[in-house]
Design brief:
single chain; extended; 48% helix
Amino acid sequence: MKINPNAPRVGSVAAKDPFAVAPPGHSLTEDNSKWAWGRPPKIVDPEQALNNAVASLKKPRLRDEMFKLLFTGVSVEVLVEGYILQAFHEGKFMPDIGLLIKPPLGMYIASMAEEAGIPYRMFENDDADKQGIMDDKTFFTMMKQNNPRMFEFIRENINESIREGNMPSEPVEENFMTMDAPVPQGMAMPQQEMAMEEMPTEEMEMPPEEVAMEEMPTEEEATI
């Protein structure tokens, strides 16, 4: 028996037969009852699943471990998804029940962190609340391609407004530098008093010419 020196080594990736795998759908023909997730779930009510999750979070040991993870920077979203995945593998409930309890469970964990003074991140990605939102550039680009008449109408109105001198102003971010300083209670002045201070008083200064005329003597005083 001759050995081919160019043949791939037994056990290597090259020697693996690409057709020696299970066909698609093979797992559906097997009995998955040996796995917990392959059997009917223990909980089918979302409210009951949420109550069980909240009760488990109140245990001191699990609560302390959760606070440690929040301190290390793990987001609330990751904690909730980890709990749902583990509960599914243990056969507690199906994934659809986990998706239903995900928002309220995340809010409860956030409230626990706020009460304990624990810093936390709600989402794993900082821009999670902005994903899926169409920006203005994409909006006008799609309008120009799909609805050119409306695009020309809007552009003409904007140009006409600019020609009239109505320049669009950029939004100013509100922060502690742009906010008006609060006036203390004792220093607040009523509007009537402010109006009285702004009004001129009755004793008005006379012009220099009138003052000079009053100081000059009359003809009778001059002859005497």
